[in-house]
Amino acid sequence: MSNSTSTPTAPLAPSSSASTSTSQADEIAELRAMLAAANARLSGLQQQGAITTTAAATTTGTAAAAAAAAAAAAAAGGGPAGAIPLSRRPSTGLSWPSVGALERRAESREDNEARIERMAAAVRELLTCIGEDPTREGLLETPYRMAKALLFFTKGYQELPTEIMNNAIFVEDHDEMVIVKNIDVFSMCEHHMVPFIGKCAIGYIPNKKVLGLSKVARLAEIYSRRLQLQERLTKQIAVAIQESIDPQGVAVVVECSHMCMVMRGVQKSGSSTVSSSMLGVFRSDPKTREEFLTLIRDNK
Ligand SMILES: [Zn+2]
């Protein structure tokens, strides 16, 4: 196993792997700097008494904001903070930049293989616990398949919305509503780790800047490929767009069917959950909001 990832108790230990390629080493260094900056910021907040409990800390920022703040702090020379136990770190509500997400993103192929082995062992245990025989032929490869599938279903942890959007922001004198709808959502509820799937519609009214249309859909994908709550997913997409191009307003509507409800009989199989997040003019102006809702309803 290479040593490009850190242990949970010493997440900021410098990497010294000679075999790590330069670009990967750069990336790891950059990620460590981000994490250090985030920790430094956290220490500051803790000293100010803004964070008092292990679980209560939340921010309203997005990954974009967290990354930007971290980068700014790093640029300002924010040094590594003292080791703050995992449980004491604030949740940004985004699982980013969490130690686990950083490690996953920066890990080498060997580390990834070791991760899959660990996951497979856990799946074998699960199979045994449900009364199955993990050594029977049909299940022999299942632990590996499930491990890889899980990593794919949660690949959003390895992706930064800011990176996706940075090259796709264009200055444009356009101030009419832009809508991307019928975006597929494949996510997993964080309470049961089973899928919820459906559609997403995203609208915004630009304020001199527009976002590449495909990136709008990509943003929904990045956030849905994590363990999620539908409400949080909806909000995160809206806030990320708001912070990246500062439009006059953003509207996001997500409609999903939750397997944890459907398959357990809590919910009728045909029903779905709708959540929306309205920012700026979509919140303040009922007419604009109505126009958006009408446009996403028509010609499905
Ligand atoms: Zn659930």
Automatic annotation (TrEMBL):
InterPro entries: GTP-CH-I_C/QueF, GTP-CH-I_N, GTP_CycHdrlase_I, GTP_CycHdrlase_I_CS, GTP_CycHdrlase_I_dom. GO terms for cellular component: cytoplasm. Pfam families: GTP_cyclohydroI. Pathway: Cofactor biosynthesis; 7,8-dihydroneopterin triphosphate biosynthesis; 7,8-dihydroneopterin triphosphate from GTP: step 1/1. GO terms for biological process: tetrahydrobiopterin biosynthetic process; tetrahydrofolate biosynthetic process. Keywords: GTP-binding, Hydrolase, Nucleotide-binding. Residues 1-25 are annotated as: Disordered. Its EC number is 3.5.4.16. Residues 1-23 have a biased composition (Low complexity). Residues 120-297 form the GTP cyclohydrolase I domain. GO terms for molecular function: GTP binding; GTP cyclohydrolase I activity; zinc ion binding. PROSITE patterns: GTP_CYCLOHYDROL_1_1 (PS00859), GTP_CYCLOHYDROL_1_2 (PS00860). HAMAP family: FolE. NCBIfam families: folE, PRK09347.1-2, PRK09347.1-3. Belongs to the GTP cyclohydrolase I family. This is GTP cyclohydrolase 1.
